[in-house]
Specification:
Elements (H helix, E strand, L loop, with lengths): L4 H15 L1 H6 L16 E10 L11 H16 L15 E5 L4 H11 L3 E5 L3 H7 L5 H9 L4 E5 L4 H15 L7 E7 L1 H14 L10 H16 L3 E3 L12 E4 L5 H10 L5 E5 L3 H6 L6 E4 L6 H10 L6 E5 L12 E5 L6 H5 L14 H11 L4 E5 L33 E4 L5 E4 L1 H17 L4 E4 L24 H13 L3 E2 L10 H20 L8 H10 L2 H4 L7 H24 L8 H27 L45 H5 L1
Parallel strand pairs: 2-3, 2-5, 3-4, 6-11, 7-8, 7-12, 8-9, 9-10, 10-11, 12-15
Antiparallel strand pairs: 1-5, 6-16, 13-14
Helix pairs in contact: 3-20, 3-21, 4-6, 7-8, 9-20, 14-15, 17-20, 17-21, 20-21
């Protein structure tokens, strides 16, 4: 970089003003001329680099298509003598995160070393960014990434939790399948960097989790069709501007629910009670008939509802359920309200509008319960049993919940091994799914609860932005029973009724078939067109096709093309994720393209199997059911072929000069 300082400063300011006016606005009104020279930032004593990697694949975490794909790739690679390490061999990284700003040469060197296609720059200090105007040719930096089709984003957040959430959501929306090898370089803000890296290490998996497998999405479409075809029901419609006069109790089935049941019972007629999932039976056994029952799952719902219906009359409970809910759960309820989830394949096909979705219903039914209360205008909300973990060892659900009954014993409960701050005192233990639930509860309160007072009475995990309140401290005024019933009726009246014969819910099998055929061919052609697997720009074309933002971070648009994309995308994403993981670990660079061609062949084979199955299910005059779930999982005990490793006494292929057993081979051990 040879440009003199005043000229460089002017060029940089003009660049930000034209292409990033929001960043330019942060500089204020000064033009930074003359003596107005910002102080050099506090650089880290030592530049450090951390890589985030995807763990080794596990057969029991895959669907059959992904298992068959990876089994074929690993087996054929071994037969072809293609060796792989368990750690990335080269420095390439699709995502490069710089914490703090350094001079031009340092930034350019990291871009060249990683060949990144997404550069994320975390700099919470505006003075450091001002300093960079004199020391970094930002146009050249931008061009070095943009010319390859990549993008540059600045992050100005200050708190590790917000930064981590922002990063993994950005990765998820740009390209969730290239997270393996993501590199973080610390130029400054050492303490913040440590906190961000620690947080991101536990959360980066959210970037590529729950992307939706082919079977799940097929079942979503099938269930929605069955549910909407059954006859009269109601469609949820968001009513954010409403102001409900009564408070709402949102009740989950965490272990702390048992200690609060007496308080809920004492206030039963003073609040609208919203039961979430398996909280239904504990409430009913205590004599509390909820006003609403929330359900989101597409399988395993009917057993808990059937169990409760055998013991109690549910006809006075309004079921508020995802359109994809297990149809066998419906007969016990007299009144049903369906909402849509914009991340699912059923949404573009069936949903009348975005207003018929819950905005933040995932990943647990408790999230749907809070979103429902906030979106329908409740301004005073209390949370019970939304523990998001447990403060007691071995406890996982309310004692009377379905999961603690003989019928529910066969359903696996996750191990709680992640410590988080408890809502009241000490530590709560949780797991990744419930940790995500806790984060999304906080997000719902932040985005939707600005005009609401929310209190967390659950003796579980603390939820950011939702103050703790002991249930015994709740004081609510008495309400006439007629007023409470009127509140429920008024709420139901906001949800329009529909008939299963409505035109918007009619099946279009012939159009579905043509869309499936066209989509599968376009995907196959895109993979076949890849010439070099070292040049990751092919990922840009794949993401243009798969549209990761659609449904994952923003609502999908309407249309069959979006439904078909969502049907196939999740399983294809899983295949590509493991393809990229394997490519990064090939020890002989000359064999990377060989492995890539094997992977592409197996991806296209899996794609054709899914195409055939999709045609069977959706190309007719009416949809056909998916095959049994057990047939779409690897057989119990299935194992993936063991990859071939290089000789442990050979020189390490990374170029370090050490033996493999003392370098990348030591990581394997």
């Amino acid at each position: 970089m040879t440009t003199d300082v005043p000229t460089l400063r002017e060029r940089n300011l003009a660049l930000f003003k034209e292409y990033a006016p929001d960043i330019h606005a942060r500089f204020g009104d000064g033009d930074f001329c003359g003596e107005d020279t910002p102080k050099q930032p506090d650089f880290a004593e030592r530049i450090t680099r951390v890589r985030f990697t995807v763990g080794a694949p596990a057969a029991d975490k895959m669907d059959r298509y992904t298992f068959d794909f990876l089994s074929g790739v690993l087996g054929r690679a071994r037969d072809a003598g293609i060796a792989t390490s368990d750690w990335p061999i080269r420095d390439d990284a699709y995502f490069l995160l710089l914490i703090g700003i350094r001079d031009h040469a340092h930034i350019a060197a990291e871009i060249a070393r990683t060949r990144c296609l997404c550069l994320l720059i975390l700099e919470p200090d505006i003075e450091a960014l001002r300093w960079s105007l004199d020391h970094v040719d930002w146009r050249e930096i931008f061009i070095s990434v943009h010319d390859r089709g990549g993008e540059v984003e600045f992050i100005f957040l200050e708190h590790a939790a917000d930064i981590s959430a922002g990063i993994w959501r950005t990765v998820r929306s740009i390209n969730p399948v290239t997270v393996d090898g993501m590199t973080c370089v610390t130029f400054g803000h050492t303490e913040l960097a440590h906190a961000v890296i620690e947080r991101l290490s536990g959360e980066i998996g959210y970037a590529y989790s729950a992307l939706g497998y082919f079977y799940d999405e097929s079942l979503m479409v099938w269930n929605t069709y069955r549910n909407l075809s059954q006859g009269q029901a109601r469609i949820y419609h968001r009513t954010l501007k409403a102001d409900r006069s009564m408070p709402a109790f949102i009740v989950g089935s965490g272990p702390s629910l048992d200690q609060d049941l007496d308080v809920i019972a004492a206030n039963r007629d003073r609040a609208i009670v919203v039961s979430c999932g398996s909280a239904l039976r504990p409430l009913l056994k205590r004599g509390i008939v909820p006003d609403f029952q929330i359900e989101t799952e597409n399988i395993a719902v009917s057993p808990l509802v059937v169990q409760a219906a055998k013991e109690f009359d549910l006809t006075d409970v309004v079921l508020v359920a995802s359109s994809t809910v297990d149809p066998d759960a419906l007969p016990a309820f007299r009144e049903v309200v369906y909402f849509f989830r914009y991340a699912l394949a059923s949404y573009p096909l069936f949903a009348p509008s975005i207003e018929t979705t819950l905005l933040l219903p995932d990943p647990t039914v408790g999230n749907a319960g809070l979103s429902f209360a906030l979106e329908t205008g409740f301004r005073e909300i209390y949370l019970f049993g939304l523990d998001c973990g447990s403060v007691r060892a071995g406890a996982h659900h309310s004692g009377d919940a379905f999961q603690n009954s003989p019928e529910g014993a066969k359903y696996r409960v996750a191990s709680y091994d992640i410590p988080v701050e408890a809502n009241f005192d000490g530590t709560c233990w949780t797991e990744t799914g419930l940790l995500s639930s806790r984060n999304n509860l906080a997000e719902a309160a932040k985005l939707l609860g600005r005009s609401a007072t929310i209190r967390n009475c659950s003796d579980g995990a603390a939820i950011a932005g939702i103050p703790a309140l002991r249930s015994g401290e709740i004081e609510l005024p008495a309400v006439a029973d007629a007023a409470r019933r009127a509140e429920v009726s008024n709420l139901l009246a906001a949800f329009p009724g529909f008939s299963g014969k409505d035109q918007q819910f009619q099946w279009v099998g012939a159009e579905f078939a043509e869309t499936i055929r066209r989509y599968a061919q376009v995907v196959a052609d895109e993979f076949t067109a890849i010439r070099s697997f070292a040049d990751k720009t092919y990922q840009l074309r794949l993401m243009q096709l798969f549209q990761p933002k659609s449904g994952l971070t923003v609502p999908q648009k309407k249309g069959l093309g979006y439904t078909v994309n969502t049907l196939f995308r999740g399983t294809l994403f899983a295949m590509i994720l493991f393809m990229e993981r394997s490519l990064a670990r090939v020890t002989d660079p000359a064999r990377a393209d060989d492995l890539g061609r094997i992977a592409v062949e197996r991806i296209i084979a899996g794609l054709r199997l899914m195409e055939e199955e999709a045609m069977r299910m959706f190309a007719g005059a009416a949809p056909a059911p998916p095959p049994p779930l057990a047939t779409l999982r690897p057989p119990p005990g299935s194992k993936l072929p063991k990859p071939m490793e290089p000789s442990r006494n050979a020189d390490c292929p990374c170029g370090s000069g050490r033996k493999y057993k003392h370098c990348h081979g030591a990581r394997n051990g």
